[in-house]
Amino acid sequence: MNDLLELKRFVVAHAVSQNLPADHYTALLDRIVTDRGDGPGSWAREWVDAGEALVTAGELLAASQYFTLGRFPFVDGPGRAHALTRAIETFDQWRAGVPAIEPRTVRVDGQPVRLWTIGLSAAAPRPLLIMSGGIVSPKEQWAAVLPQLAAFGFAGVVVDFPGVGESPLRLTAESWRLFPAIVDGLGFEADVDQTYLLALSFSGHLAIRAALHDPRIRGIVGNGPPVHDFYTDRVWQDKVPAITRDTLAQLARVTPAEVYDHIRDWAITDDELAGLSIPLAAVVARQDEIIPPADVDRLRRSVADLTLVEHDDVHGAPTHLAETRVWSLLAVLRMWPDAPDAVIGQLEAAVAAARG
Predict the structure, then answer these.
(1) Most CB atoms within 10 A, among 232, 256, 270, 351?
(2) Average pLDDT per run of 10 along the chain, which is 356 residues long?
(3) pTM above the 0.85 mark?
């Protein structure tokens, strides 16, 4: 069972990222008095009940977002399992009205991994942009952005981080293979030699590893990626929120007491970072409670083609969401040699406006 106060504190960043109305989710959080079970006043029940009310009102995308938070941070029982099921169902119902968004399944190490996609075409293949969230956010939390990716000229894919949402995968040292497997699976429907990764939080770690192995990946945009010291610094790990530790343990299928020893060898070295031959752009936060400052220092010291935007904020920079959204898309477009100048100009203006 999660610490309820910590749970409420961390879910707010995700509610903000989904543009949920603060007065609504604040009142909802006030009604939650336990993380145990799925009865009235429980975490899963209150989010699910709010989601069902939105379904009744015909607001399917908003409902999916509420259900998504009902399974936060990971499925640990029937209540959260039901919330995840409803999140996927209602997103699927919503995207039926956006027929350009289509499901696909690829094989990753022999296991089926489901994607949400847009813009795939064997007749007119586009550059491929793959988006993945972190360890607590399933693909339905991000997939509504797909029409925007298509409007900018990409074939877009949104995928679960290993073990999150529908993903059957266990998080391992080889989980970076997720991205090359997607590229392989969609090779006839996209220009996969121009593949870009929009990889948030812990997905950024997998993205860097994948790029070191797969030359089809031409650029990475991240937000608070762990690199090295998160995996090795026991003093820092003792300060990392329990939700992060417990979620990593769930995804790796080890106990919370074992997880930091289990992932210690996953660290990316300075020499490996120096071998990254593509551009890396990332949002980082000075008050990040999850990713140590030493990891940002390593990026600055070792990555040849690096662009950082630094905010005085916590992990994910939730209070700078509007800027981060447009800046991340702008960063991808700047990496794509054939990106339309007019679109880049529009996004530059949008970033400037978001910064005020």
Answers:
(1) 351
(2) 85 78 85 91 96 97 95 95 97 95 96 98 97 96 95 96 98 98 97 97 98 98 97 97 96 98 98 97 96 97 97 90 92 95 93 88
(3) yes
Bridge pairing between strands 217-223 and 306-311: unpaired
* Sheet architecture: strand order including 102-108: 102-108, 111-118, 155-159, 127-132, 191-200, 217-223, 280-285, 306-311
Strand partners, 106: 113
CA distance 289 to 314: 6
178 Cβ neighbours under 8 A, 6+ residues apart: 108, 113, 132, 159, 162, 169, 206, 210
User: Residue 174 phi/psi, 5° resolution?
Assistant: -100, 10
Residue corresponding to tokens 């990626």: 225
Supply the pLDDT for residue 1.
67
Per-residue pLDDT at 349: 94
| Residue 311 dihedral angles phi and psi, to the nearest 5° | -120, 150
Q: What per-residue string of b and e applies to 288-322 under the rule 16 or more CB within 10 Å gives b?
A: bebbbeebbebbeebbeeeeebebebbbbbbebbe
- Calculate the CA dihedral of residues 288, 173, 134, 190 and round it to 10 degrees: 130
Cα–Cα distance, 324 to 142 (Å, whole number)? 14
Tokens of residue 77, six digits:
């029982």
Contact yes or no for 291/230 (Cβ under 8 A): yes
Report how far apart, in Å, the C-alpha atoms of 26 and of each of 9, 21, 23, 56, 225 are.
Answer: 11, 9, 5, 21, 29
